[in-house]
Amino acid sequence: MASIVKGYFELPVKVDNDANVAVVAEAKLGAGAGYESVYYLTVSTGVGGGFVINGKVFQGANGMPERLAI
Q: In the chain, at which end, N or C, are there fewer CB atoms within 10 A of the end residue's CB?
């Protein structure tokens, strides 16, 4: 999926879960802009959350092994 979007828009593309993507947007453009650490809570069909620590998305024990720089 990422390769299709990347090819169409000719821009870098990262794929992650909704909570992590939401916290990145909030940390870069929203109320969390300018803070080193931001937590974002999602409530919809379930409860989830994303955490930016020192400018990087934190990936938990069951997440991807690397941290994605924002």
A: N
